[in-house]
Write a structure and sequence with these properties.
Chains A, B: Pfam families: AIRS, AIRS_C. Chains A, B: It comes from Methanosarcina vacuolata Z-761. Two copies of one chain form a homodimer. With 347 residues, chain A is of the alpha+beta class. Chain A has helices at residues 15-28, 78-91, 112-129, 182-192, 208-215, 236-248, 263-272, 294-302; strands spanning 46-48, 58-66, 72-73, 76-77, 96-107, 133-141, 150-159, 173-176, 226-230, 251-255, 286-289, 311-317, 323-326, 332-334. In chain A, strand 5, helix 3 and strand 6 form a beta-alpha-beta unit. In chain A, helix 2 (78-91) packs parallel to helix 3. The longest helix of chain A has 18 residues, at 112-129. The model of chain A has no long low-confidence stretch (mean pLDDT 95).
Chain lengths: 347, 347
């Protein structure tokens, strides 16, 4: 680690954050596993195995803080982001959400009306997937100490077959559940006062009901059709694909033309020189699917409003841990692990 | 609610916070229970009941954010506070800690060396009770947006007999596991540069091993000897006793002379006009014990280093929800619900 203080990149979801986690957190936590997936897996959550479960079930535990600013943005607010983010972390682990926590840290002077609106939004978002919010914590700090509300949510789920981000095998198809880059770009546009197209809004959404039917799919040999799953939040699709490839020990070839983008996202990225693959999404999943089952998975996804734009975007290759993007003319480029999300504090 | 913005008292553990939670959070969360103890109980955590448990077991989920400043204080730091705080919330619910989460929010410029020291302290504190830290989250924000590191921990535990804070019955003895006021007063002294006695340090400690043996105690009729439990953090002993009395529908009579105080805490409180009963503790529990069992409980507590100063401080009365303090001359005064902890940001 070059500098001796924390920089913004240390929390931006890319390779600088990976280094911090590896060199400081994983090195110093000695007891970090309570089931088949522990902290060292750096998956979207970890599992807890109980003696009382003789059916192979495991609990899944996950947590996320949200420091987005401003707390209100087109269509919704930080409350939706927090609940959806934690539901999605459980979802991409293949776990049914059982319960959420809600810890708020609020600077003095924050309007009570906005506070109540955030709480109402959390309630509504949780209701979409039927998960109760059962415990919480409220802290306040001086307005000179913190610029906006912070939410932390933890989630408890249960699964009989955890989905890891390391399960990709050559030949698997790579799917996304919808358009890429909406959240980060809409936030940036809102924050900077850009006036793009009207269809540009955060995609923040809780995905459990969208993904649940996929978890039951089995091949004729009885193996799960879904081989790996991840939500492409901080560091965007580029980071999610690289993590999945590296952990699976495989390569991924993505067809640029197959990635669904909203026109406004493409236009904004071109104008501002941003790579939409590095921008955070908050209501999307990247899914590895056993070859031959992609059409079945797509048709299930497209029946749900959050999966209408689902698409196959590429496949897993035997190349070692590389993510390659092929454009329509056959040109190839590596998709690198980004240093972090190019737009700070969007989640 | 009089003002229309958040004030520091909204997060200070007293009656202003109770109003915020009641009028905004509980009112707007519609689905808030997954077991026998839900959010509306406002206990130290809530429970999750699973179909797979046919032995009456429940999971316990709890969460806490720590915004203490400075992050380092005599003997230890925010890392110990966070782990101990969450372990203790599980402990006073009667739940064995199974796993913790660790979410950090760090301002840019925070020294990496201090960050590592905090992580090491979390590891050491968790090791005292053998609980793994299995999942986490790292966020960074601009240094103008946040003044110091914030930690959030959530905890998952399991119990076959949850201990509620509402279980007091007239005649029960009220015990504390050690001296009162140490954490808040030591923090304030450190922060303000006062030079009190050398024995003044935070009491922050994980209490599971201290409390675990008590949970097995049964009366000859087979009832739990421990009837209620709470950790007197924000709002101090005054708040904890009032919550226990109100929820139990009973009164509590405390003998002032029986409350163990360190001399330095008494001296500081006298000098500064602070009520030590309203000051936060971070390594203590208030315990309701069935009459006749208090000596047995005391002797178990005193065998553990964290329980050496354990004492009976009073008993439960049939008076409706009142907490009364009797001094050595027989004079009585009500112990009111404090507006909040008189010393902000000590936890």
């Amino acid at each position: 680690m070059k500098s001796n203080t924390i920089s913004l990149e240390h929390g931006a979801g890319g390779e600088v954050m990976q280094a911090l986690i590896g060199e400081i957190i994983l090195k110093n936590f000695h007891n970090k596993s309570a089931g088949s997936i522990g902290l060292e897996c750096l998956d979207d959550g970890s599992t807890v195995r109980l003696d009382s479960f003789n059916n192979g079930c495991e609990l899944v535990l996950t947590t996320d803080s949200h420091v987005i600013t401003p707390a209100f943005f087109p269509n919704t607010n930080i409350g939706r982001l927090a609940v959806a983010g934690t539901v999605n972390d459980l979802t991409v682990m293949g776990a049914k959400p059982l319960a959420l926590t809600c810890a708020v840290i609020v600077p003095e002077g924050f309007p009570l009306k906005e506070f109540e609106e955030i709480i109402k939004t959390m309630d509504k978002t949780a209701a979409e997937v039927g998960v109760p919010i059962i415990t919480g914590d409220t802290k306040t700090v001086e307005k000179t100490a913190l610029d906006s509300i912070i939410l932390n949510t933890a989630g408890l789920g249960i699964t009989d077959s955890p989905v890891r981000d390391s399960g990709l095998r050559p030949g698997d198809k790579i799917l996304v559940t919808g358009t890429i880059g909406d959240h980060g770009i809409s936030l940036m546009a809102h924050r900077e006062g850009f006036d793009f197209d009207t269809d540009l809004a955060s995609d923040s959404a809780p995905l459990w009901k969208l993904i649940e039917p996929l978890l039951k799919l089995r091949t004729p040999e009885g193996e799960p059709v879904i081989t790996a799953m991840k939500d492409p939040t901080r560091g965007g699709l580029a980071n999610a694909l690289n993590e999945m490839a590296a952990k699976s020990g495989a390569g991924i070839l993505i067809e640029e033309d197959w990635i669904p983008f909203k026109p406004a996202v493409s236009a904004a990225c071109e104008m501002l020189g941003l790579d939409p693959l590095e921008v955070a999404n908050e209501g999307k999943a990247v899914i590895g699917v056993k070859p031959g089952f992609e059409e079945e998975v797509l048709s299930i996804l497209r029946q749900h409003p959050y999966g209408r734009d689902a698409a196959v975007i590429g496949e897993v290759t035997p190349d070692k841990k590389e993510v390659v993007l092929r454009n329509r003319f056959g040109g190839m480029r590596f998709v690198d692990v980004p240093a972090g999300d190019p737009i700070p504090r969007v989640c």
